[in-house]
Every structure is written in C-alpha cells, then in structure tokens.
Amino acid sequence: MRGEKRVHSGTVSDDEPVPVSALQHYVYCPRQCALIHVERAWGENVFTLRGRRVHERADTPGTMVREGVRVERALPIWSERLGLIGQADVVEFLPDGTPFPVEYKSGPRLARRADEVQLCAQAICLEEMFGRPVPRGALYYHGGRRRREIAFTPSLREEVERVTQQVRLLLRQQRLPAPAADRRCRHCSLLDVCLPFAIRRSIAGDYGSESM
Amino acid sequence: MTHVILNTLYVQTQGAYIHLYQDTVRVEVEEEVRLQVPLHHLGGVVVFGNVLVSPYLIQRFAEDGRFIVWFSASGRFVGRLQGPTSGNVLLRRAQHEVLSDPGRTLHLARCIVSGKLKNSRQVLLRGLRDLQGSVPAIEEAADNLQVLVNEVQRASSLDGVRGVEGRGAHIYFTALGHLIRGDFVWTARSRRPPRDPINALLSFAYALLVSDCVAACEGAGLDPQVGYLHALRPGRPSLALDLAEEFRSVLADRLVLSLVNRRQVQPGDFDVRPGGAVVLKDDARRVFLDAYQRRKQEEVTHPLLEQRIPIGLVPYVQARLLARFLRGDTPKYVPYSIR
Of A39, A143, B160, B339, whose CA is between 20 and 30 Å from A153? Predict the structure, then answer.
C-alpha cells in the first residue's frame, strides 16, 4: 500500500535499532527528539558546547585502569531485546567484573530524569551483552565535580521500555509533536529551528490584528 | 584513466587539465593531449580529485546545459555545475512520481533484487571455482538462489520482493562461510555493531560502497534519498542503498574474501571491545582502503554498453540508466550482472 503514510516493513525497516541517546531527547521533549532524529536538525548552544567539551575526554575509544578499576571509554553497546544501539561514554568494571555505566552531563537541571532514563538504558544493554546484572551507575555533573549514583529500579527500567516503544513509534510516524513552549525551551539548542512560541501563537490564531 | 561512457567523459588522471579547443574538449596530461572529444558528443564531464577544468569550459558547459560533476579522488561527491537551466527538476519530479506508481516501483524493486541474487550466485560459483573442489553446500545454495531469481520476477508486492531478498541473503551468507579459509570463522551476519572480524570487514566495505553509490546518484542528478526498495527514512540514502544492492557481492564481499584468504588481513588487525563489538584497526583500515581503490580500477565488460570499463565506474553508469528509466526513456531498468 502506498498511501499518505508510506511506512512498511522494509528490507531493513523494522529491525532498525533506536539510538539510546534518542531516549534522553524524548524524555526531555518529544519534539526535540523528532527534530533531531526525524528532521535531522542540529543546533549548538551553551549546553551542547559544554557537553562537547565534557565528551571530548570520553570520546576516544580505549581501556584504562584507574585506581584498580578497569575503565572502558566510548564502548559500543546494544540490546537485541529492546532494539537499542548506542555508545556508552564511560563504563567502569567493578572488581567482580560488574559493569558500572557513567555519563558526564552538562545539561540543565530539567533534564535530570531524561539523563537517568538514558543511563538505565545503557545498563539494560550492558546486562544483555555481559549476561550479568547491572544494578547501579552514576551521573556526573559540571565537569565531574558532582556525582549522583543511580539505582536502576524496576520503575526506571519500565520507563526505559515504555520510552523505547514511544520513540520507535515517533520515528515510524515521522511527525513532529507539538512544541512544549515552556521552561524547557530556554535551555534547548533547537530553539531557533523549533520556534515553539511562534508555532503556539500561530495555532491559536493569536498574532494580533493589523492596525488600520 | 580517461573514459567516455554514455557521452560522459570521466577524468580520473590526477593532474590532468581539461579545456576547450575550438569545439572539442581536450584532456591533457603533462602537456600531452591524451584525448579529444567533439563537444556535441558530450553530455557532461565527471572529474575525480585533482583535475584542472578551464574556466572557459565551465562557462560553456553551463550555457549549453551540459553537466560537470566533481568528486574527490576517493569518490566522495563534492559538487555539481548548475547552469541557468537544469533538467534535474524533471528527473527529481520523476523520482517522486515513480514512488507513487506501484507498478513501476514494483518493477524496480524486482530488478534490483534479481540483480542482487544473480550476482550473489555468481560470487558463490566463482568462489567454488577458486576452491577447485566440490562443495555441495555452495552448489545447493547457488541452485536455491536461482529458484529465488525466478520467484522474485513473480512477486506481486513490494513486501513480497523484500521477503525474497531476505531469504536470498540468508542462503547466500550461510554459503559464504564455506569460502573463507585460514584463521577466520564465519557464523552469521551481524551488524550495528558487527560482532566478529568478517562482519566488521563487510560493514566497512558496505559503507564505502554505499558512499560511492550516493556519489553516483548525485552525479546523475538523482536525489539519493528517494529510493524504492528501501523505505524512505530521514537521513537514509534509500536510492543509493537500492543501487548498492547489485554491487554488494561483486564489489564488497569478493574484496573481503580475497583479503582474508590471501591473509592480507589477519586476526590481529581487529580490536574486540568488551561485550563483543569488533572494530577494524587503523592500519588494517588503510590496507583495506587501498585494496578497495585498486579493485575499483579493475576492468569489466558492461553487458549493456558492450564496453570495458573500470568496475568502480559501473555504479555511475547504473545511476544514469536508472535515471533514464525514471524519466521514461526505457521501459525497463537492467541491473548490472557479472558473468
């Protein structure tokens, strides 16, 4: 069928994995996720630039040993079960071999939950790859000065599964959700592309009448 | 290397100079005229890398509506001459029209997959000849692929074609393992990420091939993202992926086989990351790239052109043939097939 929505199970259509980073974008704002992953838009702002600086340290693949802990940087990760693919910034391996994912974040406070979902998604990938439980991980903020340890609770795991399905649907539908037009927008690198307040006014028909 | 194919002049000789001489195009290398082609024989020029094109020739081509396409030496699309008039809008419009024409879309999908299956089969049979023995598993796979070639012509829907393609890929990849000698073991195709050395090589080879096919589409004025067998997806070069199908076995798989079987790539050339992702190391990557460039210079006879051309140019020729089909010049798209 070739109608309005041309979405079929193609040669490699249906088994396309969802990028782990897209979960973080989606939880922060579904429209941001669609702009990045459906429309391929990209913007820079203070947070992405800061993030880039933070990431530069973690982007070179490799292994190192720090205080007796083996550390893997830029590790390819995936989950066949959930259909996820991505790269973990930093994975530490505890003395007993348990993987411990670590993400360095520089985003606004509003993105905290999104960061936790992303980290938990990494943990789920690592569990499948190594065949052992990954109960905890850590988020570092502000260049690694503040550390938050995250426990991967059943409810956080459920959220990862739910969000993965939502993102897959979003990518399949290829539509843009309505703009948030709230506090989140102030910190968003895609503000210029998204135009949340202009769109909202346009939808509401609220653009003043021309003065006679 | 300079070739004229389908009224297109391809200039790949580094340091060459092409310019107008009266009403002819001249290709000079080290101040010696290598080729002279009457202007009225040429639809356009494709240049690779460091080739000097005279400003006067550029102006004349722009005025006449002939094309000039620039690629990097490695074959990445750089840019295209856009004159005041351009037939491309009609071609791009035709791409979208065919997309909403189930009959022509199905025809294209069948042709693409049929070409892929035939070439996959030939690669298996050639591998069998190289082994100089009898391997029942390969012979059986070749027979099964032949059955699918016939079956795909009867597929009545796009999903039917894709189903045949999937079965063919499974048969082919299972048989491919019997052609790998030496230190590597083939299990099954894994991607995103590849989880063993052979898969890492295949993925790298396919990435090179697809980027060449993107270049070939761009060169023919086609939008590489508007494809038929591969569903449209943001950022995905669906048409280049369609075009790549008939070349995967011929260009990529055979190269991987020969590098592995000649031990030019060895188990030590790979990094195995914790958890199982496998990556080709930088030095081996360079070896592979060199081999790929050399492979592209090998000459083959193009069955439709009845002309010997470097195999690396075949995607460019096929992209032009695809454009002819989309514009309605030809009733069929004939994929490239090896003997």
Answer: A143
Shortest Cα distance, chain B CAs vs residue A76, angstroms: 6
Nearest CA in chain B to A72: B274
pTM of the model: 0.79
The answer to whether A10 and A172 are in contact (CB under 8 A) is no
Rounded to whole angstroms, what are the CA distances from A103 to A50, A80, A120, A143, A146?
14, 22, 11, 11, 12
Farthest CA pair distance, chain B: 65
Chain B interface, Cβ < 8 Å to A: 99-100, 102, 105, 158-159, 162, 165-166, 192-193, 229-235, 271, 273-277, 279
Of B99, B231, B274, Cβ closest to residue A75:
B274
Q: Which of A9, A38, A78 sits opposite B193 (nearest CB)?
A: A78
Among B99, B102, B162, select the one facing A10 at the smallest CB separation: B162
pLDDT at B80: 78
Q: How many residues does chain A have?
A: 212
| Contacts A134 to B, Cβ<8 Å | none
Along chain A (212 residues), what's the average pLDDT of each consecutive run of 10 residues? 31 70 96 90 61 60 79 94 95 94 86 95 98 96 83 98 96 91 90 88 74 46
- The Cα–Cα gap between B187 and B21 comes to 58
Establish if A17 touches chain B: CB-CB under 8 angstroms. Answer: yes
Contact B252, B206 (CB under 8 A): yes
Query: E strands along B133-251, which residues?
Result: none
Average pLDDT over residues B120-132: 91
- At residue B322, the 3 state secondary structure works out as helix
Q: Return phi, psi of residue A21, to 5°.
A: -65, -30
Task: Classify the phi-psi angles of B255: left when phi > 0, otherwise alpha if psi is within -120 to 50, otherwise beta.
Answer: alpha
Asked if B162 lies within 8 A of A11 by C-beta distance, the reply is: yes
Express each pLDDT in B3-19 by its tens digit.
665 577 888 888 999 99
B103-106, long-range: CB < 8 A, 24+ apart: B105/A2, B105/B158, B105/B228, B106/B155, B106/B156, B106/B157, B106/B158, B106/B161
Q: Chain-centre distance of CA A38, in angstroms?
A: 14
> SS3 string of B5-37?
ECCEEEECCCCCEEEEECCEEEEEECCEEEEEE
Task: Write out pLDDT tens, residues B184-209.
Answer: 888 888 888 899 999 999 988 998 88
Cis peptide before B38 (omega within 30 of 0): no
Q: How far is A93 from chain B (nearest CA, A)?
A: 10
**C-alpha to C-alpha distance for B164 and B156, rounded to whole angstroms:** 11
Nearest residue on chain B to A61, alpha-carbon basis: B273
> Of B82 and B125, which is predicted with more confidence?
B125
| A144 interfacial to chain B (CB closer than 8 Å) | no
Distance of residue A62 Cα from the nearest chain B Cα, in angstroms: 8
Q: Are A2 and B99 a contacting pair at CB < 8 A?
A: yes
